[in-house]
Amino acid sequence: MNAAGIDIGGTNIRAVLTDESGTLLGFRKISTPRTSREIVDAIGGLVAGFASRAAGGCAVSVLGVGCAGALDRGRGSIITSPNIPALAGFPIARALEKKLGIRVFIENDATAAVAGEQWKGNGGRFSNWLMITLGTGIGGGAVINGGIYTGRSGAALEIGHMSIDHGGRRCPCGNTGCLERYASATALVHDTRRRLGNFPGSSLRTRIKGTVLTAQMIYEEARSGDELALQSINELSRWLGIGITNLVNIFNPEAVIFGGGLSKAGRFILPVVRNTVEERALKGLRKGVRFLVTKNEEKTPSLGAAKIALDHSIKGA
Amino acid sequence: MNAAGIDIGGTNIRAVLTDESGTLLGFRKISTPRTSREIVDAIGGLVAGFASRAAGGCAVSVLGVGCAGALDRGRGSIITSPNIPALAGFPIARALEKKLGIRVFIENDATAAVAGEQWKGNGGRFSNWLMITLGTGIGGGAVINGGIYTGRSGAALEIGHMSIDHGGRRCPCGNTGCLERYASATALVHDTRRRLGNFPGSSLRTRIKGTVLTAQMIYEEARSGDELALQSINELSRWLGIGITNLVNIFNPEAVIFGGGLSKAGRFILPVVRNTVEERALKGLRKGVRFLVTKNEEKTPSLGAAKIALDHSIKGA
């Protein structure tokens, strides 16, 4: 049985085709369209493309869709989606089932990332570990005694909204001092822009002429040794380390694995996180914790969405 | 089969005798002696007392001991114990087995409290819930999909050392802004003493003449309507609410149950915690969370220690 897995992000939609053993049979990436109808059409096109290319006439049997936001899994609809407002309230699973004629399961994108990392990434060798996705916001997932923990209503591990500074920066969520106000790609861009005036020689000043500053640019300039970029990533990593210290004290995990677009900057981020945890976490808990980057930032979440669909399908759910 | 359960606290040792169904057959409470030898003798005396009184000549078959600190369960020894320094490095299980001639199992006191609350308290009707023990420090426990979560090395849920104020109060653990620096019984006493000067009419000023201020006194004066006591407990509850907000966003639990000595002040603490969570936690996660106080603050941890010993014994571990 082959499954397709989709990860709908605010910027891109990524799609994989896989068999039951997790062998990657196809990968596609397109820009996320604006309307729910265009999104359904685009996903339909991606799946149809896989089906036609699949070897030996193997059709796609089931589809898993990962999406940020609060979901109603039973109804297959997205309740709210901060990054893709067009999908709020939209019964995406039913629309896709109608279009494709196969079963469609939806799942939170962070949970899909954990499932993918556990199946084919760096998570498989641990029983108790955390996944931290660093992107526009900060998401999280936990594997507890070998199973993915989703909480009472499937919304657990909203670690981006853990306050580490009770009187600090306001968050649109209503809380103050939320981790993602300090350590997400959004925060990185914001804080770097704020510092531009102090770094007259920064290569970022020339790069942003006529365009907008992105986390990707900051990462690239950090690689070239730009002081501003390095300082900003360092600052972000310190904040992240404070948040991860809390999670190490709370979960006593074997490993913490970083995913999301910003995990590409892991070579700059991880050493600082490790040092901060070493300074701040309880001795008995920080000892031996592994800090890793996802095996494949681009494909893991959609692979996980496919895995979740396969599992549902095999259980006959 | 009958089991004895012991909870060794910094001030008191509490002991229960129970059968396999959790019927309470006996309860004793004594002051915690100073040396490890005296502690072993005292526990020996408590268990012998139960055995002689047990109906129909039913001897105590197994003993569970709950204790704060880092434990080596395999060896049955306490590695470090912040509140009972005499027990650090002491092989308490072996010493008790030698004295009593029965199997002895040790467990973290917070885990024992969770086991007791799940067995005979308010936790049994939930599958995913948190226990928060408010005492000298703040401890925690989590039930995840019906099982007690203890983490990689049995030290999970050190929520007293979750930082909610990264640049705030220093904690002996090495971190800053730890929740227990703001919301434990220790913090309550400290912050109340600091405010005494602003409340010349407070009944606490007369009560502490010639003695030391305790959390119990503050609770009692709050019940009598003392403004200082009420303000201090209110402040503590706000801090606690900020910490619990993080835990609600992280665990997406059905319920949060408060234990420990300070949970006696639940009527003052819980409404403020509930309001703070309502203001700060994510909408999808705060909805429907139950906030409860332990069914029996005095007996639940030792009952849980007995339950853990029974389970080990029945499994033949």
Biggest interface, residues from each chain = A-B, 50 and 50 residues
Order of helices and strands of chain A: EEEHEEEHEHEEEHHHHHEHHEH
Oligomer: homodimer
Give a count of the beta strands of chain A, DSSP E runs of length 2 or more: 12
Question: In words, what does this structure look like?
Answer:
Two copies of one chain form a homodimer. With 317 residues, chain A is an alpha/beta fold. In chain A, 40% of the residues lie in helices and 22% in strands. Chain A is built from eleven helices and twelve strands. The first copy, chain A, has helices at 36-53, 92-100, 109-120, 180-183, 185-195, 203-207, 215-223, 227-251, 266-280, 283-286, 300-315; strands at 2-8, 12-19, 24-31, 60-67, 70-72, 77-80, 103-108, 129-134, 138-144, 147-149, 255-259, 290-293. In chain A, strands 3-2-1-4-7 form a five-stranded mixed sheet. In chain A, strand 8 and strand 9 (138-144) form a beta hairpin. In chain A, helix 5 (185-195) runs antiparallel to helix 8 (227-251) and helix 8 (227-251) packs across helix 9. Chain A is globular. At the A-B interface, helix 8 of A face helix 8 of B.
Question: In short, what is this structure?
Answer:
The structure is a homodimer of 317-residue chains. With 317 residues, chain A is an alpha/beta fold.
Q: Topology of this structure?
A:
The structure is a homodimer of 317-residue chains.
Chain A: E1 2-8, E2 12-19, E3 24-31, H1 36-53, E4 60-67, E5 70-72, E6 77-80, H2 92-100, E7 103-108, H3 109-120, E8 129-134, E9 138-144, E10 147-149, H4 180-183, H5 185-195, H6 203-207, H7 215-223, H8 227-251, E11 255-259, H9 266-280, H10 283-286, E12 290-293, H11 300-315
